[in-house]
Amino acid sequence: MKILLVGHKRNGKDTVAQMITDEIGLKFQGSSMAAAKIFIYDELKEKYNYKSFEECFEDRMNHRAEWHDLICDYNIDDKSRLAKEILKDSDIYVGMRSNAELEECQRQGIFDLIIGVYDPRKEEEPKDSFDIDIWKWCDFIIMNNSDLETLQKRVNLFCKILK
């Protein structure tokens, strides 16, 4: 099973992905980590004088729109390119940001399931760094509007349904 997990920044996507992994053994990889490994670190290390891959990755929040644009450029000839790279070694792609990429992945039948993570306590990010309508595309939305224990219960319930 191939799963796409989407949502706005800091809504708990990686936490949910780790919980799913712990519960049913699927492997996940985030778009930012994958893109940084594949091409973004090499692209930005001189521009921002990064001393390490880790420094580049940690600074991504300060350049979300730029990272979004770099991923779009990477996917220019095939909007599903990064998704295909991630899914070579993972079952869950965490953090796609582009509606055009999602539409192409759907057209190609790359994902079996799309899950949204939503925390209404957090501000939605601008369209220049995330333009996916989770209410339109997601098969399931896991609400992250309480504490970690409640989120764990919701993810466990989702995993029971998935099994």
Tell me what the structure shows:
By secondary structure, this protein is an alpha/beta fold. The protein contains 8 helices and 5 strands, in the order βαβααααβαβαβα. It has one domain: Rossmann fold (3-Layer(aba) Sandwich). It starts with a strand and ends with a helix. Helix 7 (134-137) links the parallel strand 4 and strand 5 (140-143). Helix 1 (13-24) crosses helix 8 (148-162) and helix 2 (31-44) crosses helix 4 (64-74). The relative contact order is 0.23. The longest helix has 15 residues, at 148-162.
Biggest sheet strand order reads 2-3-1-4-5
Helix/strand-derived category reads alpha/beta
Secondary-structure element series: EHEHHHHEHEHEH
CA distance, first residue to last residue: 11 Å
Summarize this, please?
Helix content is 48%, strand content 12%.
Relevant terms:
Rossmann fold, five-stranded parallel sheet, 8 helices, 48% helix, globular
List the helices and strands and how they pair.
Blueprint lengths: L2 E4 L6 H12 L3 E3 H14 L8 H6 L5 H11 L6 H7 L4 E3 L4 H10 L4 E6 L15 H4 L2 E4 L4 H15 L1
Parallel strand pairs: 1-3, 1-4, 2-3, 4-5
Helix pairs in contact: 1-8, 2-4
